[in-house]
Write a structure and sequence with these properties.
transmembrane helix; 79% helix; membrane; 3 helices; transmembrane; DUF3618 domain-containing protein; mainly alpha
């Protein structure tokens, strides 16, 4: 009975290790590199149809304004917290 349980435990452990190794493979790219690539593609509207110029440029402008707003909001928050009142 213990032999079957040990075999089941080993098989489960092997499945877990195989799954972790598959998830850990990232093609040699770091997480920061992947995040920077995703951010660049998002801001450059690479997912939008380039044939429709209005949608393409509207998306780029809107996403850029949103990013600038986010940076300004973070800067304001840091300055507010650093003031310490």
């Amino acid at each position: 009975m213990n032999g079957k349980r040990d075999a089941d435990d080993r098989a489960e452990s092997r499945r877990i290790l195989d799954r972790v190794s598959q998830e850990a493979e990232s093609g040699g790219r770091s997480a920061i590199d992947r995040a920077a690539t995703r951010a660049r593609d998002h801001l450059s509207a690479s997912d939008v149809d380039r044939g429709d110029w209005a949608e393409y440029w509207g998306t780029r402008i809107g996403r850029t304004i949103g990013a600038v707003f986010l940076v300004g909001l973070i800067a304001w928050l840091v300055l507010y917290l650093a003031d310490g009142r």
